[in-house]
User: What shape does this take?
Amino acid sequence: MSVITARDVEQAKGELVVSSRDVVTPLARERARDLGVALRVGGAHAPAAQAPKVELARQRARSEPAKPEVALPPSAALYRRGAPLPAHVAARPRVAVVGAGHVGASTAQRLAELDRFDAVTLVDVVPGLAAGIALDLWHGAALRGFDTRIEGSDDLGAIAGAAYLVVTAGKPRQPGMSRTDLTNVNAEIIRTVGAAVRAKAPDAVVVVVTNPLEEMTHLMGEVTGFPAERVLGMAGVLDASRFRSLVALTGVARPAEISAHALGSHGPEMVIPLSHASVRGEPLERLLDTATLGAIVERTRDSGAEVVKLLQKGSAYFSPAESAARMIRAMVTGDPEVLDVCVRTRGAYGTVDTRLGLPARLGPTGLVAIEELALRPNELAALRGAAERIAERIRALG
Ligand code: NAI
Ligand code: 2OP
Assistant: This one.
C-alpha cells in the first residue's frame, strides 16, 4: 500500500494509475480535480469499490447461517472530501493550523480530540512535516475516540475551506531573546501566510499565535483585510491560566477554582487586575498577602522566558496549544465563557485604537463583544499604558 499525495498528482502527466490498496489523500484528489489528472485504478488488485463486497461474500461462504447484512465499518474513503458524508459529519466545520512545529502540532491534537470538526488540516513549509504529524496523530484516533480527520500538507492552499485558522508559523524565542526580537523574521512569515489566508479562506476566523503577538495579530489583520472580529490573537488565555496555576501552587485552591484575567500585552505590559482575581468568588487579595501576589504576577509575566530558559531550545507549547484550542472551542460551541483575547480595541476602556488583550466573548464568527470589567484606576492606567506601548510597536512595523 502507498499513500498517494498531492505531489504525486502534480508529477503525473494527465493520468495517475493507483492500486486499489493505495490511500489517496483528500488533497491529492482535490489537486487531481484542479489539474484534470485522471486517477485510474489499475495494477494487481481489484478495484477499490468492489473490495468490501468480495470480502463480505467470502465471509458468508465460510460461515453459515449467513449473518444479517450489516453495514461495513466506515472506510477511510467515507470521510474524504467529495464523498457522501453522514449528516453529523457534514455539518461540522474544518479547522486549519498553519505551522506544524511545537505549538501547531499540539494544537492540532487538542482540536482533533475535541471531535467537533470535520477535519483538522495542518500546514507547514517543511516538506512532509505536517503530513507526518497528521498521520501520527490520526494513528491515535481509535484510542482517543475521535473521528475528526487530520490531514497535513506543505501547500498553504490546503487551508481552503477552513472556517477557523490557528496561525503558529514562525520562529520561537531562544534563551536571551525577547518576543520583539522575532519581529522582522516573523513579520515576513505572517505576510506570506496572511496572503494565502485572504486568497484561500476568505471567510475564516483567524487566531494568531505567532510572536510578537500583538504586532503579528495586527499584521494579519492588515494583510487579510478581514474585519477585526475575525482576526484575534492568543495570549491572555495562556497568561491567565499561568497565573491561576501559579496561585494554586500556594495551596489556596485547585487551578480551575481560581478566576483571573490577564490583559494588556503578551509581554512586559501584561496587566493582571487583582480586583478580578478570586477563588470560588472570594477575592484573592483576602487569601494571599500583597507580596505573595506581587511575586506571582511577576512570575506570570516572565513565565514564557522561564520556560525558554529551562528548555534551552524553543519556547512553551503545551499550554499555548491548550489556550489556542480553547479559543477555537469557545467559537465552535458558542460557549459564553469570557476569555482574554487580543482584539482591536476601537477605544474600549478609553485606550487608543490598537491590538490589546481584553476580556471578550467569542462566537461562531469570531469576536462577539468586548466585556467591560470595572477596573481600579491603577489597573485602567496600566491597561491604557499597555495600549500606548503596543501602538508604538505597531507603528514601527511600518
Ligand atoms: P516551531 O519552530 O516549533 O514551529 C514553527 C513552525 O512554523 C515550523 O515548523 C516552521 O517550519 C513553520 N513555518 C515557518 N514559516 C512558515 C510558513 N510560511 N508557512 C507554514 N509554516 C511555516 O515554533 P513553536 O514553538 O511552534 O512556536 C511558533 C510561534 O508561536 C513562535 O513565534 C512562538 O514565539 C509563538 N508562541 C506564541 C505564544 C503565545 O502565547 N502567543 C506561546 C508560544 C509560542
Ligand atoms: C510564551 O509566552 C513564547 O510567547 C511564548 O511562552
